[in-house]
Structures are given as structure tokens and as C-alpha cells.
Amino acid sequence: MSRGEVIVRFDKVSFSFGIKKPVLDEADFSVRRGTKTTFMGQNGAGKSTIFSLITKVNVPESGNIFISQGLSIATARQVIPRDEMDVTVRDFFQKAFPKTVYDIDPRIDAVLEVVNLHAKHEKLIRAFSGGQQARLLLAYALIQDPDLLLLDEPTNNLDKDGIAHLTKFLVDYKKTCIVISHDAAFLNAFTDGVLYLDVFTQKVEQYVGNYNDVVADISIRIEKENRKNAQLAKEIQENKDKSNFFANKGGQMRLVAKRMREKAEELEEEIVDVRREDKTIRSFTIPSQGELSGELLEITSFLTIKNHKPIERKKKIVLRKNQHLLLSGPNGIGKSTLLESLASGKAKGTKIADGVRIGYYRQDFSNLDFEKTVYEELASVMDKLFEDQLRSTAAGFLITGELVNTKIGSLSEGQKGLVAFARLVLQRPGLLIFDEPTNHMNFRHLPVLAKALDEYQGAMILVSHVPEFVKQIRIDDILDLEK
């Protein structure tokens, strides 16, 4: 097997989920052995679907997908399915193989070492934090030792050390890898080619270089297309003006006028469709619950996890209206557990003022009802249903047309995140709790999301491992669970 040979090729591949959800339209691209390729595109464009076509979970409607004979493929998924949450670490990894592997324990230890995670093999998956689950997902793919490794948003939930560890692994990785990610700094460290799924044309554009190179290439291309169209528009107008002038002269001049009109029509056919950029969500505000004053939340003690054991810590934190608290600490220390207990009102050592409405953005979206449609989920948090308000809010988060009537469980992870934000806007909470709100999000949306959090006038608690995002938000206090 020679390095550089084409191991995956899409040849005029078309695929859609029903009539109203086209994903690919005669798409062409190829992947060579030993390369590290990034897959980019808007939330919901269908990047994860392309992974499912490569692994033959889905089959194309037309066109051909060539996979090199004998090529082994493994996918590190975005999230652990709900039905796998109550299995042990050992059983979780056993599912990676078609037959029982009797010496699996040393293999598990070896891949957990690679992802920098130490875990007992009898421990249940749901007992791990979001960041630890992200490492388990990567280890699940690695234990299969595939020729082609597919990584779907692998940095989600990882802390700074986790991302650094994963980056070094990919830089040193000798086999072929395709990564779906919105994390520019992470991608630039190892990418040597980019596949860009255009949500408007349903084509895949292929670029050489890293993420920054692609952004520059696209900008130059758009500028050229706009310049060419401007020149053509000028020539078209000149020919139309001359045509009108000669048409009024009568006689032989009418033939000249006809030629000028035909020339204008020919030039109009040369106008190119300028490459459209991913849409960005509209600027928005999360309204805070009115008529609240005084202390909305008081924390006097909380639990953290050390050496797999809960430890009680004491510290007084008070949050009033328009105060923002950042929770920090490494993966597995108990940040998400603390947020969940606060959101449920069951956190020991904390007191939430009576009547405070809590808006909770969970990193796994499990507080959304996956069986409800987007419309039903958004309507469920409104005091009084105003159809226009619901649809206008949803449209601001790019949830339009049939998407509003789609079940939550059928959406991409990024689209679920946008629904969760729309839900908070309609809910009007007094206390906002955010657990990793940048996960799965198109990088274009992040400044808009940061601005909304920065301007929120209720009390807010935030967990995020993305420093560039946090820097854009006013933080009044930091609670470091490690210290």
C-alpha cells in the first residue's frame, strides 16, 4: 500500500434525506493515503452524513463511492448514544469489534494512555464528564487501529490540556485522517488539505493547505468573481444604452441596435454565481426575567471530584442581576455535575431565590425532547404562544422552512445548539447556565453568541474551554474548582 494513493473517491455522488433535504449534488472529491484532511461547512450542511456514506451506513442515490480494497475505517463520533451510557468501559470498547476480544483489557489501557485518560474498566460511561467522554470516543476509534480515522468534532468538551494532547497525537499520526471541526487553531496545527461542503450548491470544494489558506483562497475567489461581474454589468449597460440609442434612429440603425441587444444578452450569460458564504445567525438578545432583585443565587459549598472521589469545598459566591460567573477547572473535576445540580435546584450548599426562572444550556442537549418538533419544543417554554414571535426567533438562528417541523432528534448537533439558544430567547430566564455553548457551532456564529452572553442582564454561570470565546464576555467572578 503506497503512501499518496487515492483511498477514498466520490464520483458525481448525490444524496438527500427526502425531497426537501439535499446534501450532495454530483459531488466529486478524493482523499489520499497518509493525508490529514479537514471537512468544513455550515451547521446542518451534511458533513457527518458524508462520514456515514464513507462507512456505508448510508448509500448514495446516484454516482459512485470508491473505497480502497481492504481499507479499515473507524469513526470517533460526536457524542455517545444514550443507549450506551449505562454500559461499562470494558463493554463499551468490546462493541468496537464484531467478535468478542478476550484480551481486551491491555488494549483498553493502551488506548486510554494515548488519550490521556485513566479509568477503571468496570466504571459506567455516564459517570464520566463530557470531556472524558470525548476522550473515550477517540479511544474507541483508535482501539480498532484503522487505516482511515474519521474524527467528528473531536475537540468538543476537551479542556486545554486535552486539545494539546489530541493535537500532538494528530501531528505525529502516520495514517490517514479526516476531521470535522470548527476549531481554527486546532485545525491549522496538522491539516494539509481541506474539503469544503457548500450548503448552497451541495458540492464539495477541495483545497490544498490549512484552514487559514482556505479562508484566504475563498476571499480571493469571491473578490475576483465580484470584480468580473462588475465589469460585465458595465459592458451590459453600455450595450443596452447603445441599443436604445440606435433603435430610435430607425432604418439600418435598427440592425445595429439588435446586435447590441444580442451582445448584452451574451454578456449576461457570462455573469457568474458568486460563491456564497455560510450564513451567520442574526444578532440577538436573551431577555432577562423582569422584576428580579437582590441575591438570585448563593453558593456556600460545592462538590468536586478528585481521584474519582467527591470532595466538599467551601466558598461563598453570590450572584445578583447582571453578574456573570465563570466556572473553570480540568475535565472530570465536576463542572457539568455542579451545573446540572444547580439547574435542577438540588445542589447542596446553594440557594436560588424564589421565582427565578432557570435557562439551562446542556452540552449534550438532553434537556430537549428529541421526539418533539422544533416548533413544539420552542412553544413549550413560552408563557403565551405568539406564532410570529416563535417563527421570527427561530429564523434568526437559521431554523426556517421545514426545519421548524423537524424532530429535534433528526437535527445535526450544531442545529440542536441553535434550537437551544432560540429556546433561551423565548424563555426569558433570570439565571442562565451555559455548559460549553461553543460545541458543534460554526465558527462564524461564535462572535454573535459571545455578544449575546456579554450583554445578558440576568445572572449567568458559564463553563467554556475556549479562551478566545470567553475573552469576548464580561466575567465578574471566577470559581476555579481545582483550587
TrEMBL record:
Gene3D superfamilies: P-loop containing nucleotide triphosphate hydrolases. SUPFAM superfamilies: P-loop containing nucleoside triphosphate hydrolases. Residues 215-277 form a coiled coil. GO terms for molecular function: ATP binding; ATP hydrolysis activity. Keywords: ATP-binding, Coiled coil, Nucleotide-binding, Repeat. PROSITE patterns: ABC_TRANSPORTER_2. This is ABC transporter domain-containing protein. It comes from Candidatus Taylorbacteria bacterium RIFCSPLOWO2_01_FULL_45_15b.
